[in-house]
Amino acid sequence: MKNQKVAFITGCSGELGIEIAKKLILKKFKLICHIRNNNKEFLKFQKKNKKSIIKVLHFDLLETKKIESELTKIYSKTDRLNLVILNAAKPHGGLFELTKIDEIKKIFQVNFFSQIFIIQKLLRLLKKTKNSSIINISSLSSLIPLRGNIAYGGSKASINFFTKILAKELKIYGIKVNAIAPTILKNKMGRKTDINTAKLLLKSSSKKTGIDMKLVVNKILYLLSKKGNSINSKIIKVL
């Protein structure tokens, strides 16, 4: 493991998570993958890349104690973390007056509170690693106040603010913190988006049916490159 780059990715069994993981393996990263449940796509990916996967952690982002117990396993597998990508999220749409407060709390727990909890628990490893990086996967909907987007958009807007504050606080340790805010993606999650919401989000995009996940992955790779080394505290749109 000496001099080996190590990345931790949440939501690794989703389509975007697997795309990110594949590219990081090509960049010679060893991976620690978080998944909530196994699926055929992840099992196939895991089998093919077992030499590059240090550990697979299983937890639901609503279960704080489980998150904590699983994250402690990372410390027995590696003495460093070069990269954390917070990719896991739960979609939601619904008018404010028709949405129960408990449902809004659940979305914030998954998309915001659990994410910052993960960083708190892994910060010791990030601080020990030279030039480490945190990349949060946000959403363009966090920057555009659309009807029916109080829960999901609000939780992602909180991630954006967290990104900027954390970048300032962790700069002293040489840790970069950025967020990527894509428009509608061509994946299962993107297809679940309300049609009217999707149309509004895609207005400024040249791809009116959604963008390829590779565009998001390319932004991640750019942030990890020498050219992207000076970028910090940014919310990067992908249209």
Strand order in space, largest sheet: 3-2-1-4-5-6-7
Write out the CATH superfamily name: NAD(P)-binding Rossmann-like Domain
Series of secondary-structure elements, N-terminal to C-terminal: EHEHEHEHEHEHHHE
Q: Considering DSSP H and I runs of 4 or more, what fraction of the residues is helical?
A: 40-55%
Number of strands: 7
Oligomeric state of the chains in view? single chain
Question: Which structural class matches the secondary elements?
Answer: alpha/beta
Q: Give the biggest sheet.
A: 7 strands, parallel
Topology:
Elements: E1 5-9, H1 15-26, E2 29-35, H2 40-48, E3 53-58, H3 64-71, E4 83-86, H4 101-128, E5 133-137, H5 152-170, E6 176-182, H6 188-191, H7 195-201, H8 213-224, E7 235-238
Parallel strand pairs: 1-2, 1-4, 2-3, 4-5, 5-6, 6-7
Detailed description of the structure:
By secondary structure, this protein is an alpha/beta fold. The chain has one domain: Rossmann fold. The protein has 8 helices and 7 strands. It has a 7-stranded parallel β-sheet with strand order 3-2-1-4-5-6-7, sandwiched between helices. Helix 3 packs parallel to helix 4 and helix 4 runs parallel beside helix 5. The longest helix has 28 residues, at 101-128. The chain starts with a strand and ends with a strand.
List keywords for this structure.
239 residues; Rossmann fold; seven-stranded parallel beta sheet; alpha/beta; single chain
Short description:
About 40% of the residues lie in helices and about 15% in strands.
